[in-house]
Amino acid sequence: MKTLLLLGGxxxxxxxxxxxIINRAARSALGGRHNAPLYLYSANLEAMVQYAGAGDWxxxxxxxxxxxxxxxxxxxxxxxxxxxxxxVTPQLTQSLSxxxxxxxxxxxxxxxxxxxxxxxxxxxxxxxxxxxKITMLDRDDPDFFIGRLxxxxxxxxxxxxxxxxxxxxxxxxxxxxxTKGIAAVTPQTKAMFLQQxxxxxxxxxxxxxxxxxxxxxxxxxxxxxxxVIVIEPGSIHAAEAAKWALES
Length: 248
Fold this sequence. Notes:
The protein has ten helices and seven strands. The protein has helices at about 10-30, 45-55, 55-70, 90-100, 110-120, 135, 145-150, 165-175, 185-200, 235-245; strands spanning about 5-10, 40, 75-80, 125-130, 155-160, 205-210, 230. The protein has a four-stranded parallel β-sheet with strand order 5-4-6-7, covered by helices on one side. It has a three-stranded parallel β-sheet with strand order 2-1-3, sandwiched between helices. It is globular, with a radius of gyration of 17 Å. It starts with a strand and ends with a helix. Keywords: Isomerase. It comes from Xylaria arbuscula.
């Protein structure tokens, strides 16, 4: 099994989710006492949120590129366990290019979600997205999340809340409650998320992407109308990364 560098810490719950999924896949495929060979670097969520809020993407990226610079020659691929952190994809891939002599890839979360949907839900072409404001608004960046999903290679249509007020309220729920863990999410905020889900469905969404890997702890499949799927990028990303690592 190939060795992965897991860049985590945007929340510890999500880092644990990735670690558990990858190791379960390794044990299921290889049997016995096998675990996945992993290096794990966990960033400080508070520092990362401050960098992102200030638009200081160079400092944000450096937290992870320092880990890449130290470990790139020891791993076969890098997995970042947060959608938001893919905002610095160019910096991460540049660091990989300069630090590794063997062309270590970044397994991008949007590409993994695209591969999963095309294989498992080929009927889904339009998806709704809820998450931090940065993720919902920055659709013009071809290396980030929406831009990557809407690229000719992946070919999805992505819809987000229509008004600035709705985007701000979703962002508030994400940053002030969801990132602190499921216990911090109030019933009112969960109801707001579900209201936004229904509005996205009314605008054609056939699946709802939880645009933060933590949101999967709040919005679940049973909360959605029949025939509309919940798309949990974190779980998909981890499973696809494990599948890649297990390929000979």
